[in-house]
Amino acid sequence: MHGGGGRRGGGRQPGLFQGGGGGGDQGDHVLAHGLIRQGIRGEFQRQVDNGVAPRQAAQHVGNQIRGMPGHNRGGPNPFDAQMNQAIQRLPNVPNLRQRRDAVQGFFQAAEGFEQQNPIGAVRFGGVGHGEGHRLNGLRQQEQQLHNGGVFNQPQAERNMRGLMDAEAFHGGVEAQHDANRRGDAPDAHFPGFVALPDGRPNHDVMHQEQAQRGAQIVQMAFPEIHQAHGNVQNVFQHHLQQGGDMDVDPDFEL
Predict the structure, then answer these.
(1) Is residue 8 part of a domain?
(2) CA angle, corner 170, sides to 167 and 174, nearest 5?
(3) Is 153 within the bounds of a domain?
């Protein structure tokens, strides 16, 4: 398990556990924060560009992230009310000049909501070092496809795998399994833990949920890549089943 010191900003990003028991435990995420941001902002902008009123566009994005696996688990999402308030502050008339602060307020609330997803949070590990390289590679491919270019499937898959940290996922699951046997808190390490009747991890369900969530966010962030590939969920599911971590590829091959 790699440490947190090499990540963006020199440390872990705030996550599900910030401000939790023990005075500020922080959770990193299996899925890259940058991909979540790209998905939320990209989907909103596409709606507005198509003539949808900003408030309706934000409602659409909010419904999409609320419908992702994991949000119905682990109790109320602390960003739910904040996201609703942010949506209501946006204008309900198409093509009206958007108030920049209101749009940013919605983005922040929506990103906070999605980062609280229990199936995406682990108490250690998480995507880090090459996130920007991977995102830039996918942005370039999305633009190439938009301009009529040829789809490079191996390159896209490599970049997508690099935005989901299978090592952190499995570390969190195993740590939670051990914690459950000791009678520790059910969210001590991995709040999205699903057990088989005998208490062992239900890897099939957890892999499927995480892969589905990843594919849905890729569809929001890079719709042309998602369509050209045809089965992004399978890329993530295979990645989780095989294990692996982006940090083994130090050159961030794009």
Answers:
(1) no
(2) 140
(3) yes
Q: Compute CA distances 193 → 22, 74, 118, 131, 176, whole Å.
A: 21, 10, 9, 25, 7
146, two tokens: 């938009």
Domain assignment of residue 223, given as a range: 23-248
**Assign residue 134 a region: left if phi > 0, alpha if psi is -120 to 50, beta otherwise?**
alpha
- Would you state the pLDDT for residue 251? 43
Number of domains the chain is built from: 1
Q: How confident is the model at residue 94 (pLDDT cuts 50, 70, 90)?
A: confident
- Residue 11 placed within a domain: no
Query: pTM (2 decimals)?
Result: 0.85
Nearest to 112 by CA among 85, 73, 79: 79
Q: Which of 24, 28, 33, 20 is nearest to 3 (CA)?
A: 28
> In terms of C-beta density within 10 A (0-12 exposed, 13-18 middle, 19 or more buried), how is residue 224 classed?
middle
AA letter at 3: G
Residue 2 falls inside a structural domain: no
